[in-house]
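Bumping my old thread because nobody answered last time. Still need a sequence for this structure:
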């Protein structure tokens, strides 16, 4: 587990210059500050964007599909629950301690022969709007907890009444192949854009 953590950290550090390049190119109306303080990162803040005109700040949490280099996935996994020390823990989507305003979902990450990252897609998701949309569908934090209890020990995909599994989203329980046994809400990126909670930056 430790070696994978180190590997992911190394990939994140190598990805950072590419992300910063895209922010500078496509977010000219904002000043951006990359956060290196671990406490702030644990609160879901990797980047602070400040509007140059209004001075309003936005906290951005970067989530990258680093297990899928040189692939394009149409979906993204939003963490609902995971296990640590055999106890159920709160995933980042509904975690009230997180100060995140936007998720920067980094997908379609490509690298060259020298393992340098050369291109990626970034989709910004408004966290509050996403949670409001899910709540409107009856998919509240409490409802997800109820589903989790009903399917304890399940591994694999579970359909949700209000989401089309092919075009919108579904639940996925990774109870057998991952140490933290995450339960994720898998959502289509195109669906997030269609319902107005996300925008493609690049």
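Sorry it took so long. Here it is:
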């Amino acid at each position: 587990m430790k070696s994978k953590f180190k590997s992911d950290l190394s990939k994140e550090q190598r990805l950072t210059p590419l992300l910063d390049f895209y922010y500078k190119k496509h977010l000219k109306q904002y000043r951006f500050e990359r956060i290196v303080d671990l406490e702030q990162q644990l609160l879901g803040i990797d980047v602070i964007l400040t509007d140059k005109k209004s001075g309003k700040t936005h906290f951005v949490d970067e989530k990258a599909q680093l297990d899928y280099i040189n692939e394009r996935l149409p979906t993204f996994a939003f963490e609902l629950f995971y296990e640590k020390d055999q106890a159920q823990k709160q995933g980042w989507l509904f975690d009230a301690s997180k100060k995140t305003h936007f998720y920067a979902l980094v997908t379609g990450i490509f690298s060259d022969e020298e393992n340098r990252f050369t291109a990626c897609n970034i989709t910004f998701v408004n966290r509050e709007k996403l949670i409001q949309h899910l709540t409107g569908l009856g998919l509240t934090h409490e409802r997800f907890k109820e589903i989790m209890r009903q399917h304890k020990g399940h591994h694999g995909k579970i359909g949700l009444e209000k989401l089309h599994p092919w075009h919108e989203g579904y639940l996925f329980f990774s109870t057998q192949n991952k140490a933290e046994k995450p339960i994720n809400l898998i959502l289509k990126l195109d669906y997030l854009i269609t319902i107005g909670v996300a925008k493609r930056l690049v």
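The chain has one domain: 2-200. Let me know if any region looks off to you.
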